């Protein structure tokens, strides 16, 4: 298993950040068949080979994910894509 742990600061209000993360979750569901559910300010996502959470923090989000064996080999690519999407959606 391989772990991804990214913290990304943003200038958005909590409500706008939550909306942006919800949009990211919709795209993950469409593109990668990821299941997602909110628990308070945490968006949990999962599918075979990945299990993670996006935490909404004051002025930031934190993405933590555990990658299974197959995705571990692509950790750098997955991490880069997460960073790109966070920058695009949250600034």
Structure, briefly:
This protein has 91 residues and is α+β, with helices and mostly antiparallel strands. Helix content is 43%, strand content 38%. The chain is globular and about 35 Å long.
Question: What's the order of the H and E elements?
Answer: EHEEEEHH
Major β-sheet strand ordering: 1-5-4-3-2
CATH-defined architecture = 2-Layer Sandwich
In DSSP terms, counting alpha (H) and pi (I) runs of 4 or more, how many helices? 3
- Tell me the name of the CATH homologous superfamily: Alpha-D-phosphohexomutase, C-terminal domain
Determine the N-to-C terminus distance. 30 Å
Which bin fits the share of residues in helices? 40-55%
**Percent strand:** 35-45%
Class per helix and strand makeup: alpha+beta
What is the general shape? globular
Give the total of domains. 1
How many whole angstroms does the radius of gyration measure?
12 Å
Number of strands: 5
CATH topology: TATA-Binding Protein
pLDDT under 50 segments (min length 5)? Answer: none
Estimate the mean pLDDT confidence. Answer: 91
Characterize the structure shown.
The chain is α+β, with helices and mostly antiparallel strands. The protein has one domain (2-90): Alpha-D-phosphohexomutase, C-terminal domain (TATA-Binding Protein, 2-Layer Sandwich), CATH 3.30.310. Helix content is 43%, strand content 38%. A 5-stranded antiparallel sheet has the order 1-5-4-3-2. A hairpin with a 2-residue loop joins strand 2 and strand 3 (42-47). The longest helix is centred in the first third of the chain and has 19 residues, at 14-32. The model has no long low-confidence stretch (mean pLDDT 91).
């Amino acid at each position: 298993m391989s772990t991804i742990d990214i913290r990304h600061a943003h200038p958005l209000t909590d409500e706008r950040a939550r909306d942006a993360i919800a949009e990211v979750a919709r795209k993950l569901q469409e593109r990668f068949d990821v299941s997602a559910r909110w628990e308070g300010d945490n968006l949990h996502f999962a599918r075979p080979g990945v299990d993670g959470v996006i935490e909404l923090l004051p002025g930031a989000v934190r993405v933590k994910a555990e990658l299974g064996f197959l995705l571990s080999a692509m950790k750098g690519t997955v991490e880069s894509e997460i960073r790109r999407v966070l920058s695009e959606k949250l600034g």
